[in-house]
């Protein structure tokens, strides 16, 4: 189970990405993605999804953990670009779990 600190990290990252989307500091990978727009962000998310699947099939935990981290990061970038708060996704998951 994730600790409160680990969960809070995702919200901290979300806030950082919102700031990067607005301020677009030079040298930031997130800025590069935001400047290229939704098509590039979606492409990267798709690439990371495929890499995560391949890592899972390779049965190397460290590789799967790394690719999953990349996947979650790019998903957060997509959500921030679309101005959808992480909370809305979590709320949807909670609703679905009650069905």
From TrEMBL:
It is found in: Cytoplasm. Keywords: Amino-acid biosynthesis, ATP-binding, Cytoplasm, Histidine biosynthesis, Hydrolase, Nucleotide-binding. Its main location: cytoplasm. Pfam families: PRA-PH (PF01503). CDD domains: NTP-PPase_HisIE_like. InterPro entries: HisE, PRib-ATP_PPHydrolase-like. Its EC number is 3.6.1.31. Pathway: Amino-acid biosynthesis; L-histidine biosynthesis; L-histidine from 5-phospho-alpha-D-ribose 1-diphosphate: step 2/9. It catalyses: 1-(5-phospho-beta-D-ribosyl)-ATP + H2O = 1-(5-phospho-beta-D-ribosyl)-5'-AMP + diphosphate + H(+). One of its GO terms (molecular function) is phosphoribosyl-ATP diphosphatase activity. Belongs to the PRA-PH family. NCBIfam families: histidine_hisI. This is Phosphoribosyl-ATP pyrophosphatase.
